[in-house]
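Re-run with default settings, no changes from the original entry. Doing this only to confirm the output is reproducible before filing.
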Amino acid sequence: MADASGGAVALTGGRMAAEVLRQDDTVLRPASDSSEFMASLLKVFEQQNFRGAPRYLGQVDGRDILSFIEGDVPAKFQPWSNDQVSAAARLLREMHDATRGSDLAGRFDVVCHHDPGPNNAVFQDGIPAAFIDFEQAAPGGRLEDVAYFAWTWTISSKQVMPLEDQAAQVRLIADVYGLEDAERRALVDCILERQSRNVRFWAEFLAHPETAPATPDVLADRIAWSKREHHFVFAHREVFDRALA
């Protein structure tokens, strides 16, 4: 965090949102085209008593006002314990269940976060307790989020955690979340698709740098990382599929 004007403190580390500030027990972030949907979503969470997300408190001077959730947000991806992964997977399921059948989900299964990685999780006493940054949230199929979650919480081509252990944690996610058999059989393909989509997502910014939330070098690194991870999962998909069977 860094000091900002007006007694607020700049919150750093996000990949998309800029000029996010903390002021006392609130978070101020620039309003955007997604503000209305995000506000409605956070209100649904509140109505459904889902406590793993900020509360929407209104808008002032072109900024959305959210409640601040105490805790730690990881600065980078890294291996996590089974207890941490299990807690985060339960949190994801509870978040999805809070939107199932809602007007916001519409004809879709749930409202997806679309970026439920550890970089958007608040840890309290070492355990994931909430998700933040719902700017990309939109209706979707729950496997979209579960696939991205499994990738960013457990899978890494660096293999700091051995491949078999990564596959075991992917199975743990499927078990704790409660995926159906057909969903388990499709999960690896969904992970691969999400990694490919990540390449396209950042490549579009690279083609239009005037709209990008990061420098061209950073965008290129994110594209290269997504490609490496896709190659890793594709090369070892039998290991992951076997663990999920």
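Residues 1-5 have pLDDT under 50 and may be disordered. Residues 61 and 184 are 46 Å apart (CA to CA).
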